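User: Could you write out the 3D structure of this protein bound to L-tyrosinamide? I've included everything you need below.
Assistant: Certainly. Input first, then the structure.
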Amino acid sequence: MATSDGGVKEQQRSETKQQEPTLYNVVLLNDDYTPMMFVVDVLETLFQKSPAEAYRVMMQVHLNGRGIAGVYPWEIAETKADRVAAVARDAGYPLKATVEEA
Ligand code: TYC
């Protein structure tokens, strides 16, 4: 912006835009050993899904090999995926989740 003294002032931003954080999908993977009801329970407890939505996502993973459990900023997505592996390991199941850019 030109000023009266001939200088150039930087354009003021009237609305400072907040940058949204990049989001990541926590992707649940199918396996042959984890019981369906265990997966439904994980989706309800770690991903705050309703019973109906948890069942729908579980069946999507069971039939298609993978499905999105939730969408979060990086740190939270990584923590959720780690928690999935931890609760599954504690229960003796191979259930795993990966994190991918949304
Ligand atoms: N395929 C598993 C079974 O038949 C169920 C299952 C669903 C496992 C989703 C993992 O992410 C998963 N018991």
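The chain has one domain: 23-101.
User: Perfect, thank you.
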